[in-house]
C-alpha cells in the first residue's frame, strides 16, 4: 500500500479475505501501520483525501466481517477529517518589483489563541511604504516587533537589501509559522542563537557586501521580560512594527519596550522607529499617542498613500508614525 499507488489499485479482495480469515486486532494494527505509517508514506505522504477514502473503505470492509474495528481506525479517520478542514491557506502577494511573497496564513482571524496568524492591513501599508523608501533599510540591521507571519519583513528582505533582519514575536504558534514562511520564500534562517552571540555577529559589516541575501533571524521577544542588556546585543539601526496598537492592555508594554531600546544603545545612535497602525478604535490610538507624550517620546506622522496596492477591497484608515526615542 504505497502512497504512489492510486486508490483503485488497492487489493480489497485480498484484504477482505485476510480479514475474514483472521479478524483480530493485530492484523488490523499491521494494516494500519503499513498503510499510514509505512516509511515511504511518511517520506511521500498521501493526500488527506486518499487517506480518508482508504480508512473509510477499510472500516466498511471490516464491518462487513462482523468484526469490531479498532479505535485507532476511527481516531485516524477523525484526524484526517480535521486535516481536510484545515483553517490554513496559501496567499501570494505580488510586489511592485514583480517578485512575490508567499505565505501560509490562517483563514480565521483568531486561531490558536492569537491574532498573529493572518496578515493585517497595517502590515501591507508599512510594506508598501518601505518599498517606496528602500534607503531607510538598505545595508542596515532591522528589528521588527510583532512580526506575525512575516509579510512586511519578507517584502523588505526581498526588495530593500537590509544587512540583517530580525523578525520577532512571542507566541509559539506564530514563531513556528513565521519560520516556515521565511523558508517558503527562499531565505535561510540563522541557527538559534542567544542575544549575546548575535551581538558579536550582527555588528560586523562585510566590506563591499551588497546585501543581496540578508542575514535573517527569528527571535522570541517578550516586550515585558526582555532586558536592556539583551537589546544592546541587537544593534538595530531601524525598528518597525505593524498593527501592534490595537489593545490598551499592551500599549504600556510596547512603550516600555521602546524605552528599553532607547536606554540600551550605549554610545550608538538611536534607531529609527516606524510604527504602522490601523485606526479601529480612535480612543486606543489616542491613548498610545498620550502615553508616548507622557514618557517624552516624540513622534510625527508620515504621509502615506490613501490606498494600498495589496488591498483590493475597502481601504482601512492606516497611519505610520515615526518615533524619536
From TrEMBL:
Coiled coil: none annotated. One of its GO terms (cellular component) is protein-containing complex. Keywords: Methyltransferase, S-adenosyl-L-methionine, Transferase. Pfam families: FAM86, Methyltransf_16. It comes from the Eukaryota. One of its GO terms (molecular function) is methyltransferase activity. Belongs to the class I-like SAM-binding methyltransferase superfamily. EEF2KMT family. This is Eukaryotic elongation factor 2 lysine methyltransferase. It comes from Cyanistes caeruleus. The gene is EEF2KMT.
